[in-house]
């Protein structure tokens, strides 16, 4: 009788497959205040009440205070240390080589650090810079101002599938006119004089129209490799020659060139965080005013009335200020899809064929199978009966006779000397 049988290499084979899952992120999850978590890890003082800000924010699929909430992605912004916006905002370096900035800027070194960390992770060198398209060395393709979206593994799984990513994004916010007197308007070059009335602030107003679709179409035909694995170009769906970002599929990280997905010259207005000790106009202590101009010249302009997204908001705003604006306004707050993609889960399978020949496993090791004399118990005495058993379980052992896996049959299968059976055991991992 045989209870155990040695497997041969020909009995074992392996295969690989992918399981795809559609992920759909809706606008209100990105824009919501209860679905977007801040960490307030940056705290500075010295002037006024100080400034508290996150280095990044996390978007959840529901209220993040609920135990059932799942983190979808982290998002932040970063600035390249060698870019013009940094050199213009810098006041020099100290003796240790640390870049210095004036008091009107905020979290500049943290914005640089964010960019450097992603460069280290994705390019293998923290001093590297990103280009759109990937592999370009043209100065105009350099990503100096980056929006980073890092999908959590729960949703990106082993990788993001090529040519499945799409994002709905608004290039402009709510138009906010620069309605100052003629002198002020002349001083601003008339660039910001948009005749739609002054709203008081457009930092928190949801973009009403003019969305664009950014997608990685064409990445399957142009498969690129990077330090971090597979990478593809993200383009404007309305003009596929307009390269706006990069998708690192294995890492589940998207990088967007803010100079190409947003109108950075747009006038911006509202209160932002600042190192200020006193309240002034609409700004409380710990805040400053960006881009305020009374309607139709009704009063003097103050708070950098001609302020724009670049460089004023990018330099003077905290990371929370900037991320709040992008997530709450540029993705809108409706029920439409903000981002979608398919993930891929790599399934490695081992197929083990357990073969029971005609002379195998016809006897049971159960003690009730034999009598006290060691003879096989027959159902009908004084008759010649064929020995048989019922197979219910298959155990897989290693070379040291340790049980590694157990396979259970849905129903017992009879085995006798006239039946040659093969059971296929599949192990997925």
What does it look like?
This protein is an alpha+beta fold and 429 residues long. It folds into two domains: 90 residues, no CATH class; 324 residues, no CATH class. The chain has eight helices and 24 strands. Strands 1, 2, 5, 6, 11, 12, 13, 14, 15, 16, 17, 18, 21 and 24 form a 14-stranded antiparallel β-sheet that branches. Strands 3-4 form a two-stranded antiparallel ribbon. A hairpin with a 4-residue loop joins strand 17 and strand 18. The chain is elongated, with a radius of gyration of 32 Å. About 4% of the residues have low confidence.
Brief summary:
By secondary structure, the protein is α+β, with helices and mostly antiparallel strands.
Detail the topology: elements first, then pairings:
Blueprint: E1 12-26, H1 27-31, E2 36-37, E3 42-44, E4 51-53, E5 57-60, E6 71-79, H2 84-89, E7 90-93, E8 99-101, H3 108-123, E9 130-131, E10 142-143, E11 145-151, H4 153-156, E12 159-160, E13 166-170, H5 182-187, E14 211-215, E15 224-226, E16 229-236, E17 239-248, E18 253-257, H6 258-261, E19 270-273, E20 287-290, H7 309-316, H8 319-330, E21 337-356, E22 388-397, E23 403-416, E24 421-428
Antiparallel strand pairs: 1-21, 2-5, 3-4, 5-6, 6-11, 7-8, 9-10, 11-18, 12-21, 13-14, 13-21, 14-16, 15-16, 16-17, 17-18, 19-20, 21-24, 22-23
């Amino acid at each position: 009788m045989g209870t155990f049988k040695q497997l041969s290499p020909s009995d074992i084979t392996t295969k690989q497959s992918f399981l795809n899952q559609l992920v759909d992120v809706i606008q209100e999850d990105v824009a919501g205040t209860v679905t977007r978590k801040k960490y307030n890890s940056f705290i500075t003082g010295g002037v006024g009440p100080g400034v508290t800000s996150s280095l990044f924010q996390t978007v959840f699929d529901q209220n993040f205070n609920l135990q059932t909430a799942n983190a979808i992605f982290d998002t932040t912004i970063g600035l390249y240390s060698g870019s013009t916006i940094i050199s213009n905002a810098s006041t020099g370096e100290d003796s240790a080589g640390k870049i210095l900035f004036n008091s009107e800027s905020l979290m500049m070194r943290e914005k640089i650090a964010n960019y450097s960390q992603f460069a280290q992770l994705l390019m293998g060198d923290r001093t590297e810079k990103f280009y759109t398209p990937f592999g370009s060395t043209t100065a105009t393709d350099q990503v100096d101002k980056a929006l980073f979206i890092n999908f959590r593994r729960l949703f990106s799984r082993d990788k993001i599938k090529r040519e499945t990513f799409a994002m709905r994004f608004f290039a402009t916010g709510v138009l906010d006119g620069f309605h100052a007197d003629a002198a002020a308007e002349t001083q601003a070059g008339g660039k910001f004089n948009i005749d739609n009335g002054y709203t008081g602030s457009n930092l928190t107003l949801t973009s009403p129209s003019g969305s664009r679709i950014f997608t990685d179409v064409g990445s399957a035909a142009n498969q690129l490799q990077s330090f971090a694995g597979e990478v593809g170009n993200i383009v404007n769906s309305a003009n596929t020659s307009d390269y706006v970002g990069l998708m690192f599929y294995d890492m589940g990280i998207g990088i967007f060139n803010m100079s190409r997905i947003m109108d950075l010259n747009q006038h911006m207005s509202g209160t932002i965080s600042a190192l200020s000790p006193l309240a002034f106009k609409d700004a409380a202590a710990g805040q400053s005013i960006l881009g305020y101009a009374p309607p139709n010249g009704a009063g003097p302009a103050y708070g950098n009335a001609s302020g724009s997204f670049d460089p004023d908001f990018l330099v003077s705003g905290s990371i929370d200020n900037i991320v709040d604006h992008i997530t709450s306004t540029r993705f809108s707050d409706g029920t439409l899809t903000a981002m979608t993609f398919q993930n891929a889960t790599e399934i490695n399978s081992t197929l083990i064929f357990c073969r029971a020949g005609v002379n195998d496993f016809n006897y049971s090791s159960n003690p009730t199978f034999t009598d006290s004399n060691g003879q096989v118990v027959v159902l009908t005495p004084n008759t010649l009966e064929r020995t048989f058993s019922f197979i219910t379980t298959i155990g897989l052992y290693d070379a040291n006779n340790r049980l590694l896996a157990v396979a259970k049959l849905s129903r017992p299968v009879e085995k006798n000397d006239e039946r040659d059976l093969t059971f296929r055991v599949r192990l997925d991992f």
